[in-house]
Design brief:
TorD-like; 59% helix
Amino acid sequence: MEISKEHKNGSGGTAVAPPVKVSPKDAPAVERALSRSKLYLLLSWSFLYPEDDEFLDYLQSGEFVEDGRAALENLTKSLENKGGSSAQESLSAIVAHLDAIEEWVNAEGTNWNLQDLRDDHRRVFSNVISLDCPPYETLFGNDHVFGQSYTMGDIAGFYSAFGLQLSNDIHERIDHLSVELEFIHYLAYKESYALIHDGPEKLQTVVDAEKRFVKEHVGRWVPLFSGMLKRKADYGFYKALADFTSDWVAFEIAYLGVTPQPYSETDYRPASFISPEGQTFECGAQDQGNELDLLMNEVGAQAFLDKETKGVDQSEKE
């Protein structure tokens, strides 16, 4: 994704925010937003076709699981019963899925090279759009191209509303699962920033967008897609990823308090869709850092959390 221009100064560098006062009561909310942002980022990156060794190195080094566990632990500690027992159960299940990914890496993935990962990605998702488990929203619940065009337009509207622009650098459609997950990663990231630097009005705008996008998009098609992915992958990294994705979306639905109308197997009647020229979206997940600390430092949250009990002003970078 391209970051909204409000996060960059005219020369392309970062702009420094004025000192702000924050309340210690916001600390759990900042932790939750950043941890959710990180977990969305991990999932987003996982679904991309591996263009180079970076993601495989991330898996093989153990950093993927390490970062996931750290974000999950921080989220659990700061949850404050948001989403009730359903949210807590989903988070508990994700622990096992991260364990499964770690076991796969240690048993098999550690010996893989880039071509192995590419071959497994093709096994599951094919070289063309696979109808067994297509990672594209508009192939779900729309049996006519006009319905698909409407959904595509609504997704583009969400991105545009936050200053995120289409790009030709990454050749994926804007309804690809990786792109949609990265969009919510960005919203959660922006939520953490708003909690520290902005007022309640801007914060509410971001939270409302998260709720709407999960309710109207991710929460509708990803549960069905995850089940299809489990069957298609059957084993290995992408099977564990399917389980991870399923429980994560279940958590988000409970946490955000939304009630999507999920698609069922009988709703899956994909029509042929040819993406218009230029309908690609730059997904920068693979360019982000591998540490949760990176996100925290970028929004000024780490210093805030370290000093919250002292009640001092913070001077941070956007």
